[in-house]
């Protein structure tokens, strides 16, 4: 498994963070002016952004929960079979439903002056023909429709997502990898809950290309919270106490965080804590 580099981590983390606001200027991140397609959920809200450069690979950003309804889906952890050409095991129903749900394009007031729209909405209009041709299709079907021309151009795909968006990236990556072998370059998720059952973990094809980032004791990464029923895939990169730990078991993670909290008052007495605060003097 290749190591995830710092600049790659920062790039995916920033894209995941900045994907949540309604206005998103993809050119700010170096993507081509026409290198963007937004895919919407059943409420017309953007759930996936497909981004690419004319020369280079494509990045697909999956957004996490955006509403109370989305959060409730996290609780529906009954098993459902992955919609892939070959049997890929069973996953969390709620996360798979996010890909199965119908995709409804965002409605725009036709009397509004297009020139006055935010850059994000103008980018939506550029691809209105593609979206209208796919009305009534699922999120996953639209995603595949958008990615197929990029795959045919030889672009490889990097998936990234936060929270339930990370689980969507895992499921979508497995489906596309089966359909278009070797199209996935890497998958990087942040704060992702466990996605599948044991049979999905055993059949998952992208373990060597999947990085699961967890920060300290992010409780979402322990959900659905049923030991030996739900399993994570890929390599865990646990960020704790200014270090990166790889594939640290959950129980040891919890134990170390508890010990860290108990010892924190003492740790502030060490000189390295004072040295790290040196930048404060530049501000006063």
TrEMBL record:
Record domain Fungal lipase-type: where: 59-226
Highest taxon listed in the record's lineage: Bacteria
Q: Which keywords, in A-to-Z order, does the entry hold?
A: Membrane, Transmembrane, Transmembrane helix
Q: Where does the UniProt annotation place the signal sequence?
A: none
Q: Where are the transmembrane segments?
A: 210-231, 251-271
Q: Which PANTHER family match?
A: ALPHA/BETA-HYDROLASES SUPERFAMILY PROTEIN, FUNGAL LIPASE-LIKE DOMAIN-CONTAINING PROTEIN
Q: What is the protein's name according to its record? A: Lipase
Q: Which organism is it from?
A: Enterovibrio norvegicus
Highest classification ranks of the organism: Bacteria, Pseudomonadati, Pseudomonadota, Gammaproteobacteria, Vibrionales
């Amino acid at each position: 498994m290749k190591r995830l580099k710092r600049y790659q981590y920062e790039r995916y983390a920033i894209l995941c963070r900045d994907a949540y606001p309604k206005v998103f200027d993809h050119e700010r991140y170096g993507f081509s002016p026409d290198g963007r397609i937004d895919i919407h959920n059943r409420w017309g809200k953007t759930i996936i952004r497909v981004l690419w450069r004319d020369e280079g690979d494509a990045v697909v950003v999956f957004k996490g929960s955006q509403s109370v309804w989305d959060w409730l889906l996290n609780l529906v952890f009954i098993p459902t079979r992955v919609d892939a050409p070959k049997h890929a095991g069973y996953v969390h129903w709620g996360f798979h439903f996010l890909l199965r749900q119908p995709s409804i394009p965002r409605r725009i007031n036709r009397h509004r002056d297009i020139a006055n729209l935010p850059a994000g909405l103008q980018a939506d209009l550029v691809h209105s023909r593609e979206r209208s041709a796919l009305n009534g299709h699922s999120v996953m079907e639209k995603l595949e429709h958008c990615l197929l021309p990029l795959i045919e151009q030889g672009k490889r795909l990097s998936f990234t997502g936060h929270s339930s968006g990370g689980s969507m990236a895992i499921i979508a990556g497995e489906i596309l990898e089966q359909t278009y072998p070797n199209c996935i370059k890497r998958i990087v998720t942040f704060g992702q809950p466990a996605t599948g059952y044991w049979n999905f973990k055993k059949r998952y094809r992208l373990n060597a290309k999947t990085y699961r980032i967890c920060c300290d004791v992010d409780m979402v990464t322990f959900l659905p919270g049923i030991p030996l029923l739900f399993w994570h895939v890929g390599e865990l990169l646990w960020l704790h106490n200014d270090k990166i730990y790889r594939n640290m078991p959950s129980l040891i993670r919890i134990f170390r965080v508890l010990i860290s909290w108990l010892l924190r008052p003492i740790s502030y007495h060490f000189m390295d804590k004072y040295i790290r605060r040196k930048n404060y003097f530049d501000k006063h």
